[in-house]
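I am hoping you can look over what I have pasted underneath with an eye to the fold:
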Amino acid sequence: RGEEEFFQLSIIPSTDCEAVSLVAGALSGPGTLAADAVRWWPEAYANIKTAHRPRTRLGMTPDPLLETGPVDAPTGVNTTFCVGISVPRDAEAGTYTGLLSVRAGGEELAQVPVGLRVYDFTLPETPTFRTLITFAASSMKPWDKRPAREVEQDICRVLHEHGIRGNGSTLTVPAKIEDGKVVCDFSDFDARIGWAIDELGFNAFFLGPMFGGGTGYSWEEYHDWIGMKRLSPEFNKHFPEYMRQVAQHLREKGWFDKAYLYLWDEPEADYFDRLVELQKLALQADPEFKVWETTSPAYEKFWGVVKAWSVPFGRPHFEEESVEARRAAGDEIWVYNIPATLEAPPQIHRLWFWQAQQYGAVGAQLWNVNFYREIDPWEDITPKPYPVGRGENKGKYIYDAGQAIMIYPNPAGEGRPLPCLRLKLLKKGIDDFEYLTILLERLEDQARARGEDDPAFVARARVREITSELIRDIGKYNLDAGDLERLRRRVAEQIEETDRGR
């Protein structure tokens, strides 16, 4: 209950069909799932002109999901729809069946039987697994001329619909120095964060100022702060006072626990000391700031300063000993970077979340969903290479097709951006994580009832045993889609079984 399940439906007509649409009827079973529980979107195609991986098939590839509405279906060509069925939170458990009508210009072409099994448990409205996903409203300007605030809100709505509850567009409170004192302007910041929290129930956001980061630049090449050089005497005097005012304001608004202070991204070892000094200045203002860093906990210089680690989810960056050490210290362990590629098997967009559960992550970060670097995503879905490295190590980062692009500009120009099949897979991955979390809770309750010394350890060991059927090691997956479906069903049935035994 509370879940949306997806499938695809394709037609290959023997004659041209105009204005093809889908019409759903109610699904019947132990109760009734109303017809409006069924949604559908025509699928469009992305063009893979260049690829990073040699085995990637070039050419037109299904991915963008158009707004719901009739589409023409040419003779002998796949015309495909993504269909979603949302299960009401009060639905009775059991199997439901119904018919989906395929129509062209009002005339029925075919009826498609649909069956759905509803399990006897409910997913929470706010996913347990937390997500912070970066986007930039400004990237939509070539297609959408609306005010940036409107575009930003539409992007947030699309992400929210796919299980995302974090605003990854780093927001900074503007400030200036007047008569030697820091003066903050919270008006725009409050409007943007307040809307996301009140309207969409977002539970996390990135807090700036973001001074810089990533590979390719040195410490000296990045941003200063309102005219002051970082770590200069003047900066060291005013920056803690600025952060104190920000912390106080966030506490008054009830937003402090949702804020992740993101001062620097993907730091490099030659300036770790200076970055830690910068982060400590913020902690002078409020020692409870959740300082965020996209790096490995193996770098002990950040211990006791960073409170939320966005650990690159691969070897050698994700190293269990240091991860467990920081988890034991009370730090949050997030994983980075949620898959967003058209060049890998589609299953990884879900299996990645099974992997996150196996290694005990509380959430994940994705950079970015609309990084259209020197491309029009409707014409070419592969961002142009990006300069990285310094000195003798200079080079270029080569993107996969679709990497850092999970939403498309609305082809009509102004209007809500469009999601894609990969976002639906991401949503299902978040749901899979929830299944495993619910089972983990049930198993811990059972272990406690049996009098086990460490119920949490017993439950976690059992869930890891389950996930290991799909996750061999970080980035090494069992890609058999049938195994994924069978294991997910087994998890659901075990949840039902444990609930009946309560």
Remarks:
- The two ends are 19 Å apart (CA to CA).
- The CA atoms of residues 184 and 299 lie 34 Å apart.
- The longest helix spans residues 421-449.
- The mean pLDDT is 96.
